Amino acid sequence: xxxxxxxxxxxxxxxxxxxxxxxxxxxxxxxxxxxxxxxxxxxxxxxxxxxxxxxxxxxxxxxxxxxxxxxxxxxxxxxxxxxxxxxxxxxxxxxxxxxxxxxxxxxxxxxxxxxxxxxxxxxxxxxxxxxxxxxxxxxxxxxxxxxxxxxxxxxxxxxxxxxxxxxxxxxxxxxxxxxxxxxxxxxxxxxxxxxxxxxxxxxxxxxxxxxxxxxxxxxxxxxxxxxxxxxxxxxxxxxxxxxxxxxxxxxxxxxxxxxxxxxxxxxxxxxxx
Length: 273
Hints:
Blueprint: E1 11-15, E2 21-26, H1 35-43, E3 47-50, H2 56-66, H3 74-77, H4 80-95, H5 103-124, H6 127-141, H7 148-158, E4 162-165, H8 169-177, H9 181-189, H10 194-207, H11 210-216, H12 225-229, H13 231-245, E5 248-253, H14 257-266, E6 270-272
Parallel strand pairs: 2-5, 3-4, 3-5
Antiparallel strand pairs: 1-2, 1-6
């Protein structure tokens, strides 16, 4: 039986005076690859526009900032029960990938590994870096390994398309620094609900239901002023010339799409879903 690729439905055509551009709402890490879909659209357009730089040097700046300790760590804020629950959750997910005959022998090694690594992350990383380190580890364990942004970046270079960025890495770091600590803590405390959260997210995203997805992600740490409200107008202002000229594929995080489309409609662009 052939594997059937999922169709990307979180895409909108935006047409002004020039050619149509395609606005894609990305899930930065997802369970399915849309590489073929991205390559098809990128091959037919002049340029690719991405939120921010993805090259190794710029990513290292994010890591360098994120691993600098702050005055209060998540390890100091979270209670022991929550940290132990997290360690146990990661162990159990990992054990599911181990053949039954050696699970009993694997458990102590996994416990030692996660006990050390999770506590180290919580103690030494800034709250947003600690959260994303654990969140992406969790997604990886759940086989969410596909990056739409990185795929688009690589495809654009392969096809020799022009690549533009809407933000500088320093602007993105500033936004991350201002993610509310309390929102991050509250989401971590609900680690038991992470599996159902991503399963529902996957279903909604594949269905292409933007309004339901916005509602579903309200509790996620990045649904905040510094990430959404302050950046939406900036992202739109900087992508405006590409929308006006047309012939571009523009990728931004899915939670920015509503704000961008609302602004595009007010400016007289025609939206094609």
